[in-house]
User: Fold these one by one.
Assistant:
Number 1:
Amino acid sequence: MSALLQVKNVTKKYGGLTANNNISFDVSENEILSVIGPNGAGKSTLFKMISSFTPTTSGEVLYHGERISNLKPHIVARKGIVRTFQETTIFKSMTVRESVIVAQHLRAKASLAGYFWGTKTAKEDVAAFGIYADELLEFLGMSSISSELAHNLPQGNLRALGVAIGLATAPKVLLLDEPFAGMNHDETMQMVDLVRSVRDERGVTVLLVEHDMPAVMNISDRIVVLNFGEKIAEGSPSEIQNNEKVIEAYLGSVDDEIGM
Amino acid sequence: MKNISSKQLVSVGLLLFAIFVAAPLIIGATGRWDFYFTLTSVALLAIASAGVWLTFYIGRINIGQGAFALIGAYVSAILVVKSGVSFWISLPAAGIFAAIVAIVIGLPILRLRGVYFAMITLVLTQVVTLTALALPITNGAKGISSIPLPSGVSLFGIPIIPDFAAMESTKLAFYYTACILMIATYAALYRLVNSRLGHLCRSMQQNEELASSIGVNISYIRMVIFAISSFFGGIGGAMFGSIAQSVYPSSFQVADSVNFMLNCFLGGLGYVFGPMLGTLVLYFGWDLLFELGKYQLLVYSIILIAVIRFLPNGLLSVRIGKGASK
């Protein structure tokens, strides 16, 4: 399989601190790839650079061989690489369905003025948005909460709403920011199934950043491990599980946390 | 969301009746002809306030609408007096010019949020006043006076708009013009808010990061909204200049800009028609307290503070009642 997304020698420095040092890996089409690492390993920074929410200091991220790093986030989204956020980042005064409809912005065929004057294309768009929203919510098992206001939803549903908003853009690559954080075992398993069906049934390539090890082992085709801003391992879940550097990094992190 | 309920239709019908039938009848019966001027002012201020409301809709506090009203008033006056252009062409030109200025100013300042944006816009009115004092084309402190009244417009020999100068009293003509403009403004605003642009504004207001992640070009939308907002300001200002038949650097001051913002707060930021009601209540409230003499400002301010304290969602929130307000 050819590489869909390439992270090439990406480095991020904040003043004297190096958050990511010379990181490279490829993501293949239709793959679920996870980036893991202990707290402070530089996962979030890498995630933000891939989605262009923060510029790289050096190196680049390529999509189909085209540079997508250091662009504006909405341009990266337009190319089909869409990120999700952790649960507090939602449209809190919109209902679930409204959120999913507004998130279909990139699928609009009519211009903004067209919507104002109510042209035929705009009316067709509005109808199509509604149909797609209902279909998507059905797919995600969220039909029953479609008219709930986002800020009234419990945490688990919020995470699913984040995925729904991301999927509404009809992305080629979905970047998930810690999709399992703060979830209990059952919720995590549901989310694992959801992410897998997103890939299997919608053909979306998934790159996720996470530190819940069991979930990641379960879901990923391949895993990239970061520690102290460096890539220390890359491979299939079983390879990673038996990698000494990884074991050391995770066991070491326990001491670090006590030390803090 | 899309379908207009019968209740809304009745409200709009009542409003139109009040403006075009009831108000002229009452004024005619009581002989208070000065009310026409008051109501015309309210209608024009409500147009400018609608613009301010729109910038609130993208999460920006705009205390600079006076600047755009002043720009609109000058553009129209200069076009009519110095170039002999018909007022009815100068009116949209004033709006468009104000919108272009808004785009130029907006480029650097629309990135700012909250109090920083508010502070810059607060300065804008003063900057435009000083510019008007300095430029030769605006005639400095003397301003532009004796602006001719709007001329008539006819198409293929059929008169569409009568010549204002030929009328015995222009009060009623200006009143109807201002009201028609106000209704057009609010109809456009309502439509905009309920169209895709409005939905994108709501998404930006609620979470800019998430909005950009779904592909919304937030700096572009902000610019469009600020331009439309200032267009309304320019239109309101130009109409004012035409009624007063004069424009001075002090025609719109910082206090006016603050009032435009207060109109929105008072009426309710959550309601499209909020600024219209806010303008009416604020303008009449001030006039009614005239009897209090030197205590006018004190009482007025206390009432304003009380309203904002006890009705944080504006006057229109009262009408909605407990059931819907959650």
Note: The interface with chain A takes residues 191-192, 195-197, 199-200, 202-203, 206-207, 209-210, 212-218, 224 of chain B (CB under 8 Å).
Number 2:
Amino acid sequence: MLESDKTDHIKLLYWMMLTRAVDDRTISLAKLGKIPGTIFSQKGHEAISVGAACALSAADVVAPMHRDLGAYLVRGMTPGRIFSQAMARSTSPSQGRDVNTHGMGDIELGIIGYVSHLPQAMTVALGAAFSFQYRNEPRVALTFTGDGASSEGAFSESLNLAAVLKLPIVFILEDNQYAYSTPSKYQYAITDLAARATAFGLPGMTVSGNNVLDVRRTTIKAIHRARNGGGPTLIKANTMRMEGHALHDSAEYVPKELLDKWKAKDPIANYKKMLYEKKVLNRRTEKLLLEQINKEVSNGEQWAENSPYPDPSTLTEGVYA
Amino acid sequence: MPEITFLQAINQALHQEMEADNTVFMLGQDIGILGGAFKATEGLFDKFGRERVIDTPMCEYAFSGLANGAALMGLRPIVEFQFADFISTGFDPIVQFAATHHYRQNNPLPIVFRAPWGGGSYAGPFHSQCPEAWFAHTAGLKVVIPSNPYDAKGLLISAIRDPNPVIFFEPKYLYRSQSGEVPSDAYTVDLGLANVAHTGDDISIITYGAMVPEAITASKILHKSNISCEVIDLRTISPLDSQTILDSVKKTGKVLVLHEARKTAGIGAEIAAIVSENAFEYLDAPITRVTAPDTPVPYSPPLENAYRPNSDSVIQAAKTLYYF
């Protein structure tokens, strides 16, 4: 294996481990009562958000949803800003005005903040893709949505409009088998959601959402196609939501056997195992990675905790530009 | 100055802003090849092509969302809804994303959502609505409703150049029935400023849109009975120009609020509250509201004529108010 390939593997592992570490720390902070709102666990989604975001070029943009923390990190959002957003501080991307990863956009980093109404991010990403086409720029928009959101009308409208206008956009559909408590069998009647793409005249592909290399490889192809005028692609990534819908949800409605089955498919543990087998990773490198991640997370947490809350006197500022 | 119709004034503003700024583009249903259901976008497709005048599929949600994303990336979209009634299918991206975006993310979102609005043409419950209160109740949107060709052009140009999402309702009853002098060059009329459309001393008629000409007609007739009415044309529903309203009320002491939208929780209720809060001691009579009743907009001419206020209903209410 080439040295550059090794570095590349380690980088993917780093982003997934960082995603999980930030997620774990956020949950701890919430349990300590340091987060006024709720949070959405990322467990099970790390390979999708990291793999897809790593397929982008610097000038591209991403419009994520609430299980795509990895994409924020890959695009350069620091753990500190992520913690400060959850902790409702004035230094957060929304200046304490929006909750958890909602409204955590940063246009300089090519990140568009989302609103709760999934799959609205798909429609906003259409507009970003449209602006690239309009200005004849070789840029691409990447957006994420979920199995539950795929039942909304805006999902179908977006696929259709993207196909009709041949927009440079890639849609990632994360099928994590549950929309809050509603299992897939009550969400859709077809076998594979990727087939929906065909109905609108764009390619639909299915990847293993727990395999970061598979996700990235397929996203790279779709982005290449979009960048070269080939139009949109829908990529459906299978995974399992390993925690409840949000922090308050113990998710007892999910069968234990299902979780056990998917625990064995953990995207990070399996990738690590493969890297050990290929001798890309060794104990020393893993230790160094962990140390670096812990430092970043702890520094970020400290910075967020030291950040001030927004001043109530600013309440009515900025309603209009 | 050349005299043109309300519709031509809109069309002229669109042509001139598209010419002046190549980040301005339009999207909506049947706005390109057809030139719009009312011909408001006539000639734009031929001049600017499909790249900038986009006939979309029927998908108000997706194309409103597209406008959000395009604005975020530095373009200035003008979205046309074929009728104000159909804005409900694109409601979510407007009130959830566009309206809140600057407050949450600090990025300007310059978008104009245009729509032919209001009744008077016997078009039934789904081609006659006045949904401005939905949007006035949402923080972060500007809501503009012009009443004459001069304002229509100047306000639309201001809306296109504004850094915020603007809901721009065009009273379709006035499209061809109203003509007026309009400068051929581009000019702006400031958003957020009401206009004293007719001066008077006894009663303040506070109104907007297609009810402004009805109020002016009523005022002229009432003048013969020695009742002097001042007509305030709000022009912008959100944010409201409280100052102009209060200045007039303090002068007349009697208030008649007039709109063709329904009564309950309408703009008139807000105006009544503003007057009560700020000029209670100047009032010589209770505030009168002349509005449509709380029903859907009916189709049959005798029904719609009874539904929609006009100069006669204004005269009647003004007389009652005057002799209070």
Note: Chain A touches chain B through 41 residues (CB under 8 Å).
